[in-house]
């Protein structure tokens, strides 16, 4: 064999090997425990390469209005996908939107529209029709290369379209991998361009997708394929009306009204806020409670900054648009204002938006003034509150059978001492053991002795004589502060202590802090500043002192409403956050024998996203040994074990309870981890993955 032939063959083989190495070693997608692919067989994942990305390369509009877009369909490693699913796994469905921002305007007008309603095109409810922004239909595809396509819209731009205005093409769709048990992958993308050439100077970027996803995990609407604000604003424009209700689908109005929900003046007056969508499905948002305000007894949704972030990685380039007061956005929440007559607007008519910012400046001198920030600042965050800061310094005589003495500090946020007697409420809560709290003491310490900001309190009740291990003491309370005293805006506000806890050993054994299940930071991603029971409890560490496995609402529940309801932390939180999906009543009686019903609560993210609240894999089985069973008088199982209690608080069916019951032994306990353990086929992660 000629030497040069051997050399060429060797080089060819080496090139193939190098090519194979580059292909297999290229950076791949990062699957998390929320993804089905995270648990799938490695060979299957390498073959299917689950995931979906859209990338728009170019777009154009011809002189006759023909709209074309060249785009890529790729897996997460950049491999081109066959949209028909012949040469690569999974069919890919795509839809397209074309829209423009007219000169001098800030919102889109979509070229692609539809007439809402069945045939004939009228609403069966009120007999009306509406032209709505929508995806194009009837366009044509041309394959250019593997994964690269050209789509020609059936819709044409109008004859007089502005070639110098910003135009945007949106693509959204899905990749169906159900046959491989890898679910359905979704994606969208938006491409901005100027048909006449030149730089895109006008965009719409008021709220970012990342800001929404703090609560929503992943925006996923209309079947799951619309996943970004950039795409949503192409259709949710002033041009789109719901003909059944007459409600605009303009994004600022729609989102403000949805999140305001139960606090809308119109809803309080008895008129529900509804949108009627595909197949005449009624979406009623009249019971929506915005998480940052829902637990705090705040009468209105005022945390604008939670979505309109002004700085940081989630800030939008046009986030300051929240300071551009206008009738549509402001009237969305304040829907009892009649701008035409001035009713509800200090009797001043407002016939245009030209004068709005004269009074409604970004920030004024006072809370509760007419400025955007002042008018919307929740009272518990007032800059005029002096603050109340406590620290637990030490615990003396914290031994079994003895009465502990707790030394603590109490000051304002400037560091000046505050007397305990100056508070409206000041309590120490003592609970133990930390292996699983089973009892607690709560004592009023407003008469604690001391000076210069350092005080001490000796509990009237001793620790149990058989107490063992680590116990915890926490401090809570507030003082009442009058804001804007002597003015028409005067109000009394609770200035609450940020809770602090300290662990101590009651028998000389090594300190063992209570296990961490969730984090306050994850709670506050949605709730902004978790605060319950009149602002007294505002950290997870404080809440769990009372909400232990044996606690229920017996002391507050009327005799006619017995048996009592469990308020064990895991059961209570799971049941509250899945309220609308419970299939059972969940009402807790609280202070003053007031019932609190959670049957309408909907979690803004998927309830299957355990890691949205849990930390360190604490949702995984098995749980640690020697945890208490839960006292659940109203549950299907009266005393469920710790693992059963966690699962049945979301999975409330009779079948789920029967499954748990037959897999629990009175002698040996729960066998949940045999099938649902971290590495099992039906692990918690696997069954909740998307």
Features:
690 residues, alpha+beta, Immunoglobulin-like, five-stranded antiparallel β-sheet, 16 helices, 25 strands, globular
List the helices and strands and how they pair.
Layout: H1 3-25, H2 42-48, E1 53-61, E2 66-74, E3 91-101, E4 109-110, E5 113-116, E6 130-133, E7 140-145, E8 148-156, E9 166-176, E10 184-193, H3 209-216, H4 229-235, H5 251-260, H6 265-268, E11 274-276, E12 282-284, H7 327-333, H8 356-359, H9 372-376, E13 389-396, E14 405-411, E15 425-432, E16 439-444, E17 449-451, E18 454-458, E19 470-483, E20 491-496, E21 500-505, H10 520-527, H11 540-546, H12 569-577, E22 587-589, E23 595-597, H13 642-648, H14 654-662, E24 664-665, E25 669-670, H15 672-676, H16 684-688
Helix pairs in contact: 5-7
How would you describe this structure to a colleague?
By secondary structure, the protein is of the alpha+beta class. It has 4 domains: 197 residues, Immunoglobulins (Immunoglobulin-like, Sandwich), CATH 2.60.40; 101 residues, no CATH class; 162 residues, Macroglobulin (MG2) domain (Immunoglobulin-like, Sandwich); 137 residues, no CATH class. 18% of the residues lie in helices and 22% in strands. The strands form 8 sheets. Strands 15, 16, 19, 20 and 21 form a 5-stranded antiparallel beta sheet that branches. A hairpin with a 5-residue loop joins strand 11 and strand 12. Helix 5 runs parallel beside helix 7. The longest helix has 23 residues. The two termini are 57 Å apart. The relative contact order is 0.07.
């Amino acid at each position: 064999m000629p030497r040069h032939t051997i050399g060429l063959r060797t080089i060819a083989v080496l090139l193939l090997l190098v090519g194979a190495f580059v292909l297999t070693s290229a950076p791949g997608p990062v699957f998390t425990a929320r993804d089905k692919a995270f648990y799938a067989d490695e060979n299957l994942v390498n073959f299917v390469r689950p995931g979906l990305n859209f990338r728009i390369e170019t777009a154009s509009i011809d002189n006759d209005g023909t709209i074309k877009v060249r785009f890529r369909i790729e897996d997460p490693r950049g491999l081109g996908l066959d949209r028909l699913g012949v040469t690569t796994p999974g069919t890919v469905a795509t839809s397209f939107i074309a829209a423009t921002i007219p000169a001098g305007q800030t919102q889109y007008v979509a070229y692609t529209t539809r007439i809402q309603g069945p045939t004939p095109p009228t609403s069966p409810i009120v007999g009306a029709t509406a032209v709505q922004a929508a995806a194009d239909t009837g366009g044509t595809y041309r394959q250019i290369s593997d994964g690269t396509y050209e789509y020609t819209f059936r819709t044409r731009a109008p004859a007089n379209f502005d070639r110098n205005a910003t135009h945007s093409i949106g693509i959204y769709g899905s990749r169906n991998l159900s046959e491989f048990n890898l679910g359905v992958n979704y994606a969208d993308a938006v491409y901005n361009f100027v048909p006449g050439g030149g730089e895109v100077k006008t965009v719409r970027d008021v709220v970012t997708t990342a800001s929404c996803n703090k609560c929503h995990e992943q925006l996923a609407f209309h079947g799951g394929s619309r996943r970004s604000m950039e795409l949503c604003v192409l259709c949710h424009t002033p041009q789109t009306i719901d003909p059944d209700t007459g409600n605009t689908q303009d994004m600022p109005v729609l989102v403000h009204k949805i999140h305001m929900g139960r606090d809308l003046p119109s809803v309080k007056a008895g008129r529900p806020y509804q949108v009627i969508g595909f197949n005449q499905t009624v979406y009623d948002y009249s019971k929506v409670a915005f998480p940052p305000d829902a637990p705090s007894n705040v009468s209105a949704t005022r945390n604008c900054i939670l979505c309109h972030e002004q700085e940081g990685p989630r800030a939008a380039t046009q986030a300051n648009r929240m300071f551009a007061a206008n009738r549509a956005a402001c009237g969305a929440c304040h829907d009892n204002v009649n701008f035409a007559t001035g009713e509800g607007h200090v009797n001043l008519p407002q016939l245009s938006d030209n004068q709005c910012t004269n009074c409604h400046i970004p920030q004024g001198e006072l809370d509760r003034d007419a400025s955007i920030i002042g008018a919307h600042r929740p009272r518990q965050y007032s800059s005029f509150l002096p603050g109340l800061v406590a620290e637990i310094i030490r615990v003396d005589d914290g031994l079994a059978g003895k009465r502990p003495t707790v030394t603590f500090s109490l000051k304002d946020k400037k560091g000046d001492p505050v007397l305990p007697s100056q508070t409206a409420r000041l309590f120490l809560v003592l609970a133990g053991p930390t292996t699983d709290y089973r009892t607690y003491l709560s004592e009023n310490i407003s008469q604690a002795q001391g000076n210069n900001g350092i005080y001490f309190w000796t509990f009237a009740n001793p620790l149990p004589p058989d107490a063992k291990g680590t116990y915890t003491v926490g401090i809570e309370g507030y003082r009442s502060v009058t804001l804007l005293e002597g003015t028409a805006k005067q109000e009394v506000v609770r200035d609450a202590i940020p809770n602090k806890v300290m662990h101590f050993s009651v028998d000389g054994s090594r300190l063992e802090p209570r296990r961490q299940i969730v984090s306050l930071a994850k709670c506050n991603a949605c709730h902004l500043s978790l605060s319950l029971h009149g602002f007294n409890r505002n950290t997870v560490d404080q809440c769990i002192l009372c909400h232990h496995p044996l606690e229920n609402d017996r002391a507050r529940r009327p005799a006619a409403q017995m048996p009592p309801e469990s308020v064990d932390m895991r059961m209570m939180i799971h049941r509250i956050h899945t309220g609308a999906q419970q299939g059972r009543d969940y009402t807790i009686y609280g202070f003053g024998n007031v019932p609190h019903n959670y049957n309408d609560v909907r979690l803004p993210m998927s309830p299957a996203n355990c890691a949205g609240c849990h930390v360190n894999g604490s949702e995984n089985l098995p749980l640690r040994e020697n945890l208490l069973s839960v006292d659940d008088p109203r549950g299907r199982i009266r005393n469920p074990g710790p693992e059963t209690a966690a699962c049945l608080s979301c999975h409330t069916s009779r079948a789920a309870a029967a499954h748990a019951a037959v897999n629990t032994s009175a002698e040996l306990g729960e066998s949940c981890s045999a099938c649902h353990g971290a590495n099992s086929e039906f692990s918690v992660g696997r069954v909740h993955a998307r």
